[in-house]
Structures are given as structure tokens and as C-alpha cells.
Amino acid sequence: MSLQDPSVKFNLLDSCHEEFNHKVPNSLLHKINSLDDVYNYYLTSVDVRTPLEALKTRDLPPNLHILYDYHRFADDSSKFDGVTAYPQNNNVVTGLKMKKKYKGFDAPQPKPEYEDELKL
């Protein structure tokens, strides 16, 4: 069966979305032109891992090492006497998982040299 009629294609894919709780992304809609295409799409396994997570299961060459649990250079690091790798830049932590692990901070901003002259 051909899916050339846009309304038929929409209704079919919408029904599949409701049934399988997985919809066809916009970038692949042009490849779905028949029922066989729909069938093959929903038979394809979905890998939701990030590329870094996918590397954990691969056999890497012996000269390649990846640090999955890296050490973060933070502003409050006692190892470097409070010196930061990013002076005058705020550290914004996004994502719920990372906010639990790391805290962000507002970097102190230097006062302008001419500020003392303005107070006179």
C-alpha cells in the first residue's frame, strides 16, 4: 500500500505513535512511503545512549584510554589556591544529573580602573 496521500500517511503514523509510544522524526518522514517502510521503521531498534556511553562497550586499541569519570577543575579547588581555569567567567551547570554532582558559581568581576575617579 502506498502512502502518497498525506492525510492517510498522517493518520497511519499518528495511530502508530499512539500504539507504540514512539513517533517517526521529521527527518525520516520522507523515507516512509509504504507500509513496508513503516513496518521496517518500527522493527529497527532504538539506541538512546550518548556516543560517550556507546564507547564503554567497544573494544578500544591498547593505546587509547577514555576517562569516563573525569575530575572537574572547579573554582573552589584547594589544589590550585583558588585559581580557576576560567577567570572572570561564570560556571553554569545545566542538566539535573550534573547539578547534583557539580555546583556552579559566579566568578568575581574585577572593578574597573576608573571607578575610583568617579567617586571623587
TrEMBL record:
Top-level division of the source organism's lineage: Eukaryota
Keywords, comma-separated and alphabetical: Mitochondrion, Ribonucleoprotein, Ribosomal protein
Cellular compartments annotated: Mitochondrion
Pfam families associated with the record: Ribosomal_L50
GO CC entries: mitochondrial large ribosomal subunit
PANTHER family in the record: 39A RIBOSOMAL PROTEIN L50, MITOCHONDRIAL (PTHR31542), LARGE RIBOSOMAL SUBUNIT PROTEIN ML50 (PTHR31542:SF1)
Family note: Belongs to the mitochondrion-specific ribosomal protein mL50 family.
Protein name: Large ribosomal subunit protein mL50
Gene giving rise to this polypeptide: LOC103520859
